[in-house]
């Protein structure tokens, strides 16, 4: 976690609260040391910017590691459907692989 980067991203968030990339960048900064804060940001992304496809992979992994596995499963499945709808082939492949690995972990 880089405090200077977080401060800059928080400033950008105030200036552009509807930019999903800024929320995503903040969430990924927080995910290792402050998973609860990252969870809130990923949840906001999933609710407000469901087409921001990069969210699904990281949000599902965070839920699987720190929170609810059932919610992680739900996020993976929704991300796979969204990637199919958006014809995001690379994201689809990554999500399917991550979801398969997630299923084997149980």
UniProtKB/TrEMBL annotation:
Q: Which InterPro entries match?
A: TPR-like_helical_dom_sf
What domain of life? Bacteria
The protein here is known as Enzyme of heme biosynthesis
Origin species: Marivirga lumbricoides
Lineage, please? Bacteria, Pseudomonadati, Bacteroidota, Cytophagia, Cytophagales
